[in-house]
Amino acid sequence: MTAAILGESNATRGIPEVSQPIAAPAAPRLEWRVATVIEVREETQRARTLVLDVPEWPGHHAGQHVDVRLVAEDGYQAQRSYSIGSAPEEKTIALTVERLEDGEVSPYLIDVLRPGDGLELRGPIGGYFVWDVAQRGPLLLVAGGSGIVPLMAMVRHHMLADDKTRARVPVRLLYSARRWDDVIYRDELARVAERPEVEVSFTLTRDAPSDWVGYRRRIDRAMIQDVSWPAAETPRAYVCGPTPLVESVATLLVEVGYDPMRVRTERFGPTGS
Amino acid sequence: MQVEQMRLDGNAAGGMLGELFARDVTAALATCGGCGKVGPVGALLEYGHGMGVVLRCPSCDTVMVRLVHAPGWLRLDVSGTSVLAIPDAVSVS
After folding, report:
1. CATH 3.30.360.10 fits A2-18+128-272, yes or no
2. Using a CB-CB distance cutoff of 8 angstroms, which residues of chain A are in contact with residue B19?
3. What is the pTM of this model?
4. Which of A72, A155, A226, B51 could disulfide-link to A76, CB 3.0 to 4.6 Å?
């Protein structure tokens, strides 16, 4: 199990190496703010991106998330976490939300919210699943479904770095989706993949177009060995998606020699509905 | 729903922990009171429910943090955590 492996390495290391902290945005207490929807973008049949203007947004790091709160007239509250998909360099923040049919929150965000509407949120949240291009070294990103969202913030952050910095941080992205039409940010990822320092691979687990040349199965050891950086290059890995995918990929990465402290995971689950 | 599908990680509890702590706690290193393993709070296993969260040790399953909203109270039980080391700033180590 991933968990056991993580624990073992932590014990042998005690406290991991501490690098210089990146200048953290002033951290006022986490307060609820009312953001304004600037734009709603259709990404796939089930996913929309909400571009939000957040008053006094302190800035974020790639990989962080926000909590969104909906309050009904009778006072009933529902709260969910959504990853930020936009780069830290952008002035607005973008959340990409996938519609879960029995969800309490995502149908509202997708079907009801329109530009000009307000949305209550707090953030940015999280200092663990974060990445900055200044960290250097090869970067491996593995996404399952809408787990691509926080990884896209990393890709976009990477794209906005200067040429020299970018060249020091080659990126490989492996994205697992059920079918091609479920792939979020498809066109943008195609453009990103034209960069010499970025490689993008897809695997489709349910249906694939007849002319599909990519992978057509769940992520397994052979695929990880094909796609990932050799462990000897001391890559960093970020894995985000449904719990079973995240745990299986993190385990595979450690099995092929990745340093467990450099494999960071974020699990998506039904409470993200 | 299977238990595995309900499991998230400590990242997801960041907002609720932010109601209590001035610093970001997901990057903090927590020592398990059960087995002594040290790891980031963000990598603990989270089991969410309506009123709050439970964070368990990924190695031995000890309940390290219980955070529950009860009427009039926010109740934190960290009896399963022996040490919490919290960095000054968001660090990208």
Report:
1. no
2. 30
3. 0.87
4. A72
